[in-house]
ABC transporter ATP-binding protein (Methyloraptor flagellatus), 242 residues
Amino acid sequence: MTTTPLLSVRGVKTYYGNIIALKGVDIDVHEGEIVTLIGANGAGKSTLMMTIFGSPRAREGTITYAGRDITKLPTHHIARLRIAQSPEGRRIFPRMTVFENLQMGAAINDFAFFEEDLERMFTLFPRLKERVNQRGGTLSGGEQQMLAIARALMSRPKLLLLDEPSLGLAPLIVKQIFDAIKELNRTEGLTVFLVEQNAFHALKLAHRGYVMVNGVITMSGTGQELLSREEVRAAYLEGGHH
């Protein structure tokens, strides 16, 4: 692809104190793609996701979004550029109802399409419609994950950053969530950058993927290419795709 990527990460190094977590990462995400980053726990996947969003900051390298350098921008400015993040651990507002959580997501674009987007979310995740007046904290893990993604989508992002959406969820719920992502990509052209330990599902879903080991990208290719590679199967797929 010769087009300019929607998101481009170049030579990014991120530190926690004196410990280097990302050791010069290069990644591209083109408009309309689902790109997945897989790797073991502690490889630096979530750190990359948070660095893109400005916290922690990249100490070296550049992060470009839609042709604009966002490396030094404050997080709240990044959020206004139509990048939405659904962070690891389903960080919803537990005391707020499902409806109020979705309102928080829509606040970024001043509720411009609120009613319409609410219906879209209820079509995508019918469970949320059933639970609309329930507090976020009383939902099941799967419902909370649906809510976290729906809340991110209420801001009508061009790029959705999804961190470990399948973590701790039953296989059936994981399938529902991945199906929803696929549907959004197919029907609305939503660009998705997905960090995931569930390599099998993530690579099946993704157009392209990257493998991260200890803060370094060690492999990249189409989802299918990576799925078929022996070293990927051995490290991430053995016994893990039932």
